[in-house]
Amino acid sequence: MVKQVVTTCFVLFHCIISYWAFMSSCSIQSSTKIIIPAIARYFGTRSRYEDVNTYLIDDILAINNSLVTLPSSKCSEIHMTVIIRHGTRYPTTKNIKKMRKFYDLVVRDAAVNWNYLSEIKSQWKMWYTDDMDGRLVDKGREDHRHLAQRLIKWFPSLLTQENVRQRRVKLITSSKHRCVNSTIAFRKGLMEGLNIEDELEISVNDTLMRYFEQCKRFVKEVENNDTALEELQRFNDGPEMKRIVEKMADRLEVPYTNITDESVEAGFFLCAYEFAIQNLNSPWCQLYDEVDAQVLEYAGDLKQYWKRSYGYEINSKSSCILFHDLFHRLDQVVAQINSDDIVSEAVTVQVGHGETLLPLVTLLDLFKDDTHLSSTNFATQHNRIFKSGKIVPYAANLLVVLYKCPEGIRMGVRMNEKSLTLPGLTDPVPMYEDVKKRYRALLEGCDQETVCKINNS
Ligand SMILES: *[C@@H]1O[C@H](CO)[C@@H](O)[C@H](O)[C@H]1NC(C)=O
Ligand SMILES: *[C@@H]1O[C@H](CO)[C@@H](O)[C@H](O)[C@H]1NC(C)=O
Ligand SMILES: *[C@@H]1O[C@H](CO)[C@@H](O)[C@H](O)[C@H]1NC(C)=O
Ligand SMILES: *[C@@H]1O[C@H](CO)[C@@H](O)[C@H](O)[C@H]1NC(C)=O
Ligand SMILES: *[C@@H]1O[C@H](CO)[C@@H](O)[C@H](O)[C@H]1NC(C)=O
């Protein structure tokens, strides 16, 4: 209580003395601005999209041209494929149960030495119920509606009324309700942005968008394999995690044995979900300092790394079908352009999961560090490229655009609305033929059936 009063007084005082100099910024900060938890940048796959692209916090429909590289003005856009993760969602039932367990422990056993603990115990309600199980929330619908409207701004010559009416815009989704509902919201954003009523059909394709559960070898060797995530288990049993567990037990004044890595993870998830879903900087966030958050982020990244990314070759190879689907479509567009035909698929939107995107960006060699993420290199991997919060926040998207230029067809790639140069190439908007040369081994191989077959060796 005392602490709160002191803080309020300080803020008031600060506002008064700064009044003349900072009138507008001060009043904005104290009234309308949402307070972002200090540890929000460590939320990993539970990150808000606008915390990756912070200019969106002020204007969710803004596009930031300084983040993209365009080819010469003599080029024109002829096609765009975008593969998008679903929007913000509720926790899964499994995580809701862990969160409830930790909440119950805090309410039952924790001391009330801190404001935030008394707030959790007396005011905060455990409002997550098991049936919410990973469903899309309202914020998740907005994520997709707004993304659609920004894409109209990015590609005004591709996302047109005419292309929608002529069915040159295709919507494909995973069958999961959060993806279907994201796609419906994306379509709504398109219809509003283009001012048309026409409803595009949505086709469900799990072979394409949930390829990971159909790849037998991946399921056997990684998904259902208890030792595949060994590095994560070792890290969770290791010194960094042990330290957080002890700090947490000290804060709550409960025996060390009553707190586990699962409990500290659950509280961290509560902080992340309260923020992503409700825009709240909840008292749960006060239970973690920056180092705690970095450690928990690393645990999350280890899981993604070994289960979906560079940890095992089969992780990325399981996305061969999506890779070929993309290049097959791009080839078709190029063939249509070369024979002066109308491009039949101007825009293709594919909605799936973080698990859909990560293996594909891995297959393309993106976000690759020199060393594996392991249970022992937390300290040396601070500046790693592989941070799942930057790669797959909610509504994360990998976008490929083809341009027709006087010298031929060029291709641009953007991750979360930022251009990136494909590793091994120097031109940020290379000739399409050079991209195909770069990925020749995959284009000529990477056969889904072969890579996913379980071999007995
Ligand atoms: C665009 O992004 C850059 C880099 O993140 C940032 O510095 C700049 O302020 C942004 N521009 C706008 C108009 O928001
Ligand atoms: C610790 O956990 C045990 C077993 O669940 C329980 O009986 C005990 O009351 C807990 N102690 C505290 C102080 O939370
Ligand atoms: C989402 O989509 C499902 C069907 O896929 C539907 O039953 C549900 O009402 C929708 N809304 C929410 C909030 O999940
Ligand atoms: C499980 O993963 C470990 C570690 O990669 C590997 O050695 C083992 O062969 C895998 N087991 C199966 C059944 O694939
Ligand atoms: C799903 O996508 C794959 C790959 O592009 C395609 O071969 C298959 O026909 C599609 N299935 C459906 C039901 O559209």
From TrEMBL:
EC number: 3.1.3.62, 3.1.3.80
A GO CC annotation given for this chain: plasma membrane
Disulfide feature: 75-405, 271-285
A Pfam family this chain is assigned to: His_Phos_2
Entry's localization field: Cell membrane
The reaction(s) this protein catalyses: 1D-myo-inositol 2,3-bisphosphate + H2O = 1D-myo-inositol 2-phosphate + phosphate; (2R)-2,3-bisphosphoglycerate + H2O = (2R)-2-phosphoglycerate + phosphate; 1D-myo-inositol 1,3,4,5,6-pentakisphosphate + H2O = 1D-myo-inositol 1,4,5,6-tetrakisphosphate + phosphate; 1D-myo-inositol hexakisphosphate + H2O = 1D-myo-inositol 1,2,3,5,6-pentakisphosphate + phosphate
Transmembrane domains' residue ranges: 5-23
Keywords linked to the UniProt accession: Cell membrane, Disulfide bond, Glycoprotein, Hydrolase, Membrane, Signal, Transmembrane, Transmembrane helix
Annotated family: Belongs to the histidine acid phosphatase family. MINPP1 subfamily.
Protein known as: Multiple inositol polyphosphate phosphatase 1
